[in-house]
Amino acid sequence: MKHLVAMCFAVVFLTACGTSVPLNDVPVVDVTANSVQGSDANGTGVNGTGVTPVDLGKTTASADASAESRTVYFDYDSFVIKPEFQSLIAAQVRVAKAQPTRKLAIEGHTDETGGREYNLALGQKRADAVRNAMAILGVPQSQMESVSFGKEKPAVTGKDEAAYAKNRRAEIRYQ
Q1: Low-confidence ranges of the chain (pLDDT < 70)
Q2: CATH level 2 (architecture), domain 25-174
Q3: What three-state secondary structure class fits 30?
């Protein structure tokens, strides 16, 4: 009888610990660029083709001059890094590798649509996507930290798509 009561308690406890926040599978990619976990069918995950090689020799160390050159923008409800931001990430990898004692904070942000919990999770996925891309290109994981601010720190105020697009981002900050 004690075992039955303990088992029922455990089931109720574990059910209460669950979340109603719908999250896609977070892709895990090892430093050899081999996909460890697949992506989802609607394109909000990292595609299964791996990472497109980027020539680090074409970037400059002056890439950390402006905040705009350290911001990766995302589509609505997505944490896929768009191809146009690969050179930006490569430039930041070059800067980070040139300054190995400098720590990086990768901050994930969302627009104001959606709930607080969902936006925090999505912001974390965006920050992790940039962190993983930088790790694949050679920045040590120990040099980077990813954090989500969700919708709490908008870059632009406004209730239109132009403002929302500027808020769906991950920012690379040097500390």
Answers
A1: 1-68
A2: 2-Layer Sandwich (3.30)
A3: coil
